[in-house]
Amino acid sequence: ARALIMKELYHSFIEKYSYNSQWEEVFLLLCGWIGVIDGREKEVTKIVENLLSRKDELENILHKNLLLAGKIVGEGVGVQKSLAYRIINEIVRLAVYSDYSLLRREATKVLKKCSELSAGLVLKMLSEEVDKSVRGKMVRSLGEIGSEESIPALSSIIKDKGEDEWVRDEAVRVLGEIGSEESIPALSSIIKDKGEDEWVRD
């Protein structure tokens, strides 16, 4: 990574090898060095913008450059905030709406690295979404992100008996996975409520 920086070859190498997973760690180290050690945060933003400029059929299917851009954001190396927000927003949509389970998993891994941004975006989308299957996926994504920021919203879902049973069940599972003491009141109320749906209580 340092050799590429010294010779200023990184733009051409990223363009050529961004789809090669063996180079991914090199590019993350490179961005870390440029943004943190050299203090050139604008250059990191430029690198990410160049990654996102790839608009061919392969990228539209695999989204590898988008996911790599998200990983760079997750490293906290100085990507411009508005650009970081846009990247994570697109990855959230992949994690929730993609028809491909592998792509959803890869997107969710990136979101976990960017939990401060991604949890808030998923929560915002969840508050606006009405489709129960999509809401369930969003709840599951919150569990995989693992941010305690989502606990109040998940607790509200559990308590709302007008909510779809499957979505509530997902919320119960996710709160258990997050494992915070803040989750205990909502989970306890489900266990103690004998009139509660058995599927949700289990």
**Helical coverage, percent range:** over 70%
What's the gyration radius in Å? 20 Å
**pLDDT under 50 segments (min length 5)?**
none
- Would you list the SSEs in sequence order as H and E? HHHHHHHHHHHHHH
Please give the count of helices: 14
Number of strands: 0
State the end-to-end CA separation.
51 Å
Shape: elongated
β-strand percent reads under 5%
Q: What kind of sheet is the major sheet?
A: none
* Secondary-structure content class: mainly alpha
- Mean pLDDT, all residues: 87
Topology:
Blueprint: H1 2-6, H2 10-17, H3 24-37, H4 41-52, H5 57-62, H6 64-74, H7 81-97, H8 101-113, H9 115-128, H10 132-145, H11 151-159, H12 165-178, H13 184-192, H14 198-201
Helix pairs in contact: 3-4, 4-6, 6-7, 6-8, 7-8, 7-9, 9-10, 10-12, 11-12, 11-13
Q: Can you characterise this structure?
A:
This protein is mainly α. It is built from 14 helices and no strands. The chain has helices at 2-6, 10-17, 24-37, 41-52, 57-62, 64-74, 81-97, 101-113, 115-128, 132-145, 151-159, 165-178, 184-192, 198-201.
Highlighted features:
202 residues, mainly alpha, 14 helices, 0% strand
